[in-house]
């Protein structure tokens, strides 16, 4: 896939520099404008965040008006060819994310990819394609194209799914969590029983909770390593201090 000119909607802080970068990826047949309600809710919760919503790279197969967009075509898609179908969009999406980071002056660990449906599929795939391109992925009503063989080390994965989703069955999210647990990934899952293929209030509130309260495993490990190093240094100092010359 050649480099694509992507239509972008953005919401920036009213004053001061942005502290977080939240990138929104829509579902198949939608476009960046369909993410406006989610962007407005996120803006109320994180007023110092830079929030960007992108159009999918291709016109939606089923929309002759050209307004609907997609990240990859669903025509003739199967479980066997799904990963290959989306693969050409990964480098252009990575380039788009890097451009947003450069424009806002925010790094990878301050970046969150927030995808719905096909946008969630792309977000999860991108975290595998380039580990650490974002500190977090929030996957609403999404799935892996194929379950990963290796877990990302620098990205935390949050799954949010409706228990009655008729489009992408919640079992895909459960299977992903089982695989990620086996791979010792940093991942969470929240399921809203009775909810369909949507971002409802329960799932949105859980997403905010995760963003505010979940401390990435890598941060815990770094803190523990620092504390252990300090303890060893202090212990060494006590031994040296007690030594007779």
UniProtKB/TrEMBL annotation:
Keyword Zinc: no
Domain Phospholipase/carboxylesterase/thioesterase: 16-208
Pfam entry (one): Abhydrolase_2
Keywords associated with the record: Hydrolase
SUPFAM superfamilies in UniProt: alpha/beta-Hydrolases
Domain of life: Bacteria
Annotated InterPro entries: AB_hydrolase_fold, LYPA1-2/EST-like, PLipase/COase/thioEstase
Presence of the UniProt keyword Hydrolase in the record: yes
Family: Belongs to the AB hydrolase superfamily. AB hydrolase 2 family.
Name used for this protein in its record: Esterase
């Amino acid at each position: 896939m050649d480099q694509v000119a992507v239509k972008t909607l953005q919401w920036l802080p009213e004053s001061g520099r942005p502290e977080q970068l939240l990138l929104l990826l829509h579902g198949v047949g939608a476009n960046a404008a369909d993410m406006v309600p989610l962007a407005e809710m996120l803006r109320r919760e994180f007023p110092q965040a830079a929030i960007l919503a992108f159009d999918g790279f291709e016109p939606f197969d089923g929309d002759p008006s050209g307004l609907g967009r997609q990240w990859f075509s669903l025509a003739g898609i199967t479980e066997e060819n799904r990963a290959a179908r989306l693969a050409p969009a990964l480098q252009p999406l990575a380039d788009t994310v890097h451009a947003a980071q450069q424009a806002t002056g925010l790094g990878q660990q301050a970046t969150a990819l927030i995808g719905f449906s096909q946008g969630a599929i792309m977000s999860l795939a991108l975290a595998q394609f380039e580990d650490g391109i974002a500190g977090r992925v929030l996957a609403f009503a999404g799935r892996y194209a194929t379950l990963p063989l290796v877990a990302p080390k620098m990205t935390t994965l949050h799954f949010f799914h409706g228990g009655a989703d008729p489009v992408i069955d919640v079992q895909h999210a459960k299977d992903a969590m089982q695989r990620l647990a086996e791979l010792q990934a940093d991942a969470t899952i929240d399921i809203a029983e009775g909810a369909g293929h949507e971002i409802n209030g329960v799932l949105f509130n859980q997403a905010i909770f995760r963003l505010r309260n979940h401390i990435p495993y890598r941060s815990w490990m770094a803190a523990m390593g620092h504390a252990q190093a300090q303890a060893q240094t202090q212990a060494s100092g006590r031994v040296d201090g007690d030594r007779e010359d």
